[in-house]
Amino acid sequence: MRGRVLELLSLLVACLLIFHSAVPNTVGRLGSLLETFLPWLGLAVPVLMGLALLRRRWAFVLSTLLPVAAWLGLFGGLFLSPSDAEYDITALQHNVSDVNPDPSGTARNLLRTDADLIALEELTPSALPVFTAELAPDYLHHASVGTVGLWSKYPLVDIGRVDIKPAGIGPGWDRGLRATARTPQGDVAVYVAHLPSVRLGLAKGFNTAWRDESAALLGAAIAAERLDKVILLGDLNSTVDDRGLDPVSSRLDPPGSGFALSWPAAFPLARIDQIMTRAAPVTRIWSLPSTGSDHLPIAARIRL
Fold it and tell me: What are the DSSP calls for the chain, one per residue?
């Protein structure tokens, strides 16, 4: 009987991995919650395999290979991150936290990456001048809208606000910008966005309504983008597996390799900070050391 339970649990884990999109979002947004932490479902595999080995029945051990295969099919490719792949620019994304105790130190840490593009979110009125002063010597071109900003080694033109504000949020909420970066390889549309936070509670479950509405607005803006090459840098408050980001992820390509977990900084569980592109493949993505924010910075090499 216990062996049968192990087999059923192995089948359940495999089904959740393969058919995660079939888990409904109608009650508490359970589907999005599962997809946000989907890679961690793989932790069930060694537990099931250990229990199967204790039973000393190879049939039970073999049953655990199904979720192993499912997990590797979904995430195995993320381990393949060639360090010598060709690239043209490096982009960096970081939510610096609106309660960051040392914005100056954070800026100096980011400078060490020598990234060509730096996108920051949660820029408070007091922190923005600090970041600008620290980054200005190396980044001659800068744009900011509300609480998001972009620093570039390349000229920025056509700078403008991107309206990603959900209807239920009051005035003064600006978290999206677009600019054209004049790179040696040609013009690139660069978007910086910070989607609304999600909430997990007993009353509403995984509450993503504002985040999903904002994602739809951002996706529409990207769909209307006239330039072929697009780079999106932002805190999207979920992973690329979450169906709530489909309006964005369906129009852009996520990195093909590298986990680059970014949140929470103390013990990263998910990459909710994203670098996604169109017609400009990401050849490598990785997380950077903590800066004093509750997010880790992430960086990516991009081929134009």
Answer: -HHHHHHHHHHHHHHHHHTGGGS-STTTTHHHHHHHTGGGGGGHHHHHHHHHHHHT-HHHHHHTHHHHHHHHHHHGGGG---TT---SEEEEEEE--TT-S-HHHHHHHHHTT--SEEEEE---TTHHHHHHHHHTTT--EEEEETTEEEEESS-EEEEEE-----TTS-TT---EEEEEEEETTEEEEEEEEEPPP-EEETTTEEE-HHHHHHHHHHHHHHHT--SS-EEEEEE-SS-TT-GGGHHHHTTSB--SS-----BSTTS--B--EEEEEESS-EEEEEE----SSSS--EEEEE--
For tokens 């600008």, the residue is 132
Give 20-59 pLDDT, tens digit per residue: 888 888 777 888 888 888 888 888 888 877 777 776 666 6
pLDDT tens profile 170-202: 988 999 999 999 999 999 999 999 999 987 755
